[in-house]
Amino acid sequence: MTHYLAFSLLLTTVAGATVAGAGPRSPDPAPYWRSAGLVLGGPDAPPDNAATEQSNADRSKSCDGVSFIRNLKYGESGQNVLDVATGDIRDSAPRPVLLLVAGESFDGDNAAADIAGALADQALCFAARRGMVGVSMSYRRAPDNPWPSGARDVAAATSWLHQNVDLFGGSRDEIVAVGYSVGAFHLASLLGHKELQESDSDIAGAVLVSGLYRIGGDASAAEKSYFGADASQYDERSAYPGILRLEIPILLAWAAADPPRLVAQGEQLKALLCKSPAQCPHTTVLRDRAGLASLLGPDASGDSLAEPILELVREIEARGLP
Questions:
Q1: pTM for this predicted structure
Q2: Cα–Cα distance, 310 to 165 (Å, whole number)
Q3: How do residues 220-229 score in pLDDT, each as one tens digit?
Q4: Total structural domains in the chain?
């Protein structure tokens, strides 16, 4: 639980400028997605946009000025839904897109569902208030949906964005995906396996936070429910070696107070990327998880993911990637 709360604080309480070149659009994109035939899905889908906006207001008053569209379907499963957030935008220039892929568990027994929703909303508000389109996605879970379902869902959601994000004022050429915890593995797995990618599922940059990138013999029961019981397949189902050949910019992050297993995974991925011909990633090591709130005020020392993420987006805009 503290892991989710810490990362939600990472993305919200820091004061920051908007991304260079980003500008607002219509504050209510609902007519666009209605006319495009985008379908609401999921068991908790609201009957109309007014109900959705009321739910948003009740959930988080800290997101004033941010408009949400909830439970848009990007795939066949009821778990294949995403939320989109936009700020009070007046400029019609296409804006960068921040896609959040977050989850604490590979399987369906996720006791932190409410916290996950709060984390997603905080991240969406972070993006929308800084001149981006914020998107969060949910993905199918094990045991009914084993490897590589999570990676395929990230591919499908990204493909959906390529086809539809312009309706929200976003640029399909400036999609930055942020993978957190299990979401970091699903994102890294997609990036490392070309056979799982779709023709229009490419992204301009990736942020990988506190993830497991290679599962070993110490896999938990939840991890085995996704990867299978045969440990001889784990290396093949890891993000390696494909992730070492990526040319898009990567921001790699973990907290010093993460479990040792997560710290080791982050350090190993950094070391291998720096030895690869492709790149040495941007890296942020957060000092701790429990005390992050005190580090995100006006006098913050920079121990935050907010500014590194914005800097990555600026770099992508400057390069004109992809």
A1: 0.82
A2: 19
A3: 999 999 999 9
A4: 1
